[in-house]
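Q: How would the structure tokens look for this protein?
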Amino acid sequence: GLIPKRQGELASQIGKLVVSHLVTPESLQKKLSEEKFKQETEAWVTMKLHSWLEKGVTLEQLLNQFQIESPIQKTSAYIDGKIEKKYWELKSAYGNQALEDIIPADWMEGIKEKIPEAADHIIEKGIDYFSSLEGREKIKTMIEDFLKERGKLWNMIQMFIGNDSLADKLQPELIKFFYNPGTKNMLVNVLESEWDKIQKKTPSELLARVPEDAVLHYIKRSAADMLQLESIFKKPVAELIAPYMDKLQETFIPRLLGAAGEYLTQRSGEILERFQVEAIVREQIESFSLERLEELVISIAKKELVMITYLGAILGGLIGLIQGVIVLVTS
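A: Here is the predicted structure in token form.
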């Protein structure tokens, strides 16, 4: 009858006992500050991370688990939107300014210094092209087109000499022209002159003949080709973070757990208060059935209850024996 009568009081006292003496802010702080506990926690987190990575979950699957559907399409649309927004902002800000006012002076100078290299590259490609069979056929075609427009006299010359012979004679002369130092000087002068003209123009003038939709499409496609979003999202997370795995284990996990431990240490009292541990314990004990509560109390105090029973039997026996002796003596 004791346990049913005192169940509410028992629940309240146990709740206070837990909060006041067992699960206290000081005990939590002590546990979180133990070096062994920190090492065991780091080892456990690292083990769980490796175990999860071994499943081969891709970035797309990971995001799907967080209820983020179609991440490739959403990311692509987000990037395209940012590109388009930035394009219009830049056009509004710099569209009517000359390139020389937009591009830093050292960049402009650097581009101009690269013009001789560009000329060498053009000459090299020209020599390679006109030295090939394709280049020879192009020379032959150009000769035919030239002679067709020059009347009958030139056609008669073409008949006697032949386009093949003219192409064979003109091909080495063209190659000599490219090798001539004056060719490079002329090409450099032409490129520098064109570059000076371009510097004076605005982006709007340079792109005037190009549809803006085509420009945006080209920029978006270039960004998509460079980023390769599909290959990134289809790769396992383990492969993506493999280059950073050592740093993750040695630096990130300890720092993360350290920051979490420090936060819990500083806020342990507030956390326990918000969780209302005393109320939770009290409600749980009050919800126990009488059989379960009796079983719990007896399992804890079984030894003491047995001793009480034995002690009662011994005391009862001794009292009865003494009483019997007294009765015999007095009678």
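The radius of gyration is 46 Å.

The longest helix spans residues 290-330.

Upvote if useful.
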